[in-house]
Amino acid sequence: MTQVTASDVKLLREKTGAGMMDCKKALTETGGDIEAGVDFLRKKGLSAAEKKAGRVAAEGLVAAAAEGDAGVLIEVNSETDFVSKNDMFQDFVARLAGLTLAKDPADVEALSALDFGDGKTVSEALNQLIASIGENMNIRRIARARAPGGVVGTYVHAGGKIATMVAVSGATGSTAQALARDFAMHVAAANPQYINREQVAGEAIEREREVLSERAKATGKPANIIDKIVDGQMNKFYAEVCLLEQDFVKDPDQTVGKVLKAAADGADVVAMQRFQLGEGIEKAASDFAAEVAAQVNG
Question: Engineered SS bond to 63: which of 10, 73, 97, 103, CB 3.0-4.6 Å?
């Protein structure tokens, strides 16, 4: 019979969150093979992480990290808002953002395979956290930005509900860094869809012009006047959806583009990204009592 060591049991327990005796039995049945033990527990439905995996995770945290000309955003989801206030979860997300910045993984799958320390991959560390806290969690998405010859500024709002980053090329130093952060703050508040009007999709422009034209025609004005009205309203449309044409939140008398030019002539915004926690995830209907019961009953 294969000798099952305490360290092997501990390792399997960390990987799966299953009970100690279940882990010992799994290793006994699989000849001490850790990965086979993981599969054994999953087949028996004894893996804590596996049990949680079907639950909707739409809460959690978004986070940001930046250094020099590089920045990242990351979203890690949990089932309830309680977990976002958990120190272990907050530490995990912060470390993960730093790791993403340092190692520049291509996607979530590549990030999950990275070494997280203490002999665990990111995926294994997440499974251990799931087992410890008792909720399904997942690393949903990451985004990266670079600013050639420039800086990346980040901003996190509302305790990890919104995270943004803006990459400004052609400017460096503390002034440029502060400006990029201010622009990231603006993106959190104003939620622009594009950096400039050149990025606006042709279909979006055609759709907007069609709507505006129909409204203008209803006024009964001549065609040449209608065209001028539509052109003027399209400028307002661009000012609503394009970062550089929006009124700057810290100085509404100027657009973001004018602020950028005044601060660093020749600088340009080359990337922006905004993560809002849980956007696009269909949340299950719940209430406070049910959330508390879920926490208590695990």
Answer: 97
